[in-house]
């Protein structure tokens, strides 16, 4: 019999199995909730700290290329009127300032601070170039605009674009690191979930083992044993009385029942033997009384016959005496 040390009763083992399974289910639910919460937090952080800044950097680059460089080319070719060009550059300038200020306010990394400082210098230089560009537009000088495009515009915008590209690469690297952390946490969560499921399966297996091997099978044997005892077969052995659980208690009760039945059978047999002995003694006494009575009757008949003979003899002797007396 397999019994967990220190856990004797079936009820205790089943309760421990159910309690363990409940704790595991609660732990798995808590772990799943925690994992989902952390994943949601990481996804939110990745979006707010990586995707949004990347979008801001992309928009900044587009503003420089479209709002400044493309406007200058359109003004030079006549595809855009000067007042419209001025509005476009002013709008681009305001958008650049707003995007860059918001980006700098949201960044805290030490490695990113160096890149931001470098990009800030480039953006300030580009800001001076944009101010010059606006003065050229206000003067509507095509020659100065052509000079700006040929000599200074790209030399100022390209470093800004390169700095913004480095910042974007840094964001991508940090996003990759965040993804690796989230992936490692996900793998750890999967391992913990698998371990919890394995422990849960072990608890279920132990409960099934307890129910099938230590409850149902012994109860089936006990049912057959009780049926044989009920039929009067007291030679069947009672097994399991040494167990310390409920099956052992039932087996010990059946052993007491069997012992009592055996004792009752022994007493009945003793009473039967005593009754037979009494009957034999009564029969012997009856036979002895009958023989005594027969002997007494035979003796009486013999005595009566002898008395009659003696009486006859006495009468004969009296007759002889009388005759003898008469002759004399």
State the distance separating the first and last CA atoms: 124 Å
Number of strands: 0
C-alpha Rg (nearest Å): 62 Å
Order of helices and strands: HHHHH
Mean pLDDT score: 81
Structural class: mainly alpha
Unreliable spans are 1-6
- The general outline is rod-shaped
Tally of contiguous helical segments: 5
In percent, how much strand structure appears in the residues? under 5%
Question: What does this entry look like structurally?
Answer:
The radius of gyration is 62 Å and the shape is rod-shaped. The protein is mainly alpha-helical and 328 residues long. Helix 1 packs antiparallel against helix 2 and helix 2 runs antiparallel to helix 3. The protein is 90% helix and 0% strand.
Show the helix and strand layout:
Elements: H1 10-77, H2 82-106, H3 110-139, H4 142-230, H5 246-327
Task: List its traits.
single chain; 328 residues; mainly alpha; rod-shaped; disordered N terminus
Give a brief outline of the structure.
The protein has 328 residues and is mainly alpha-helical.
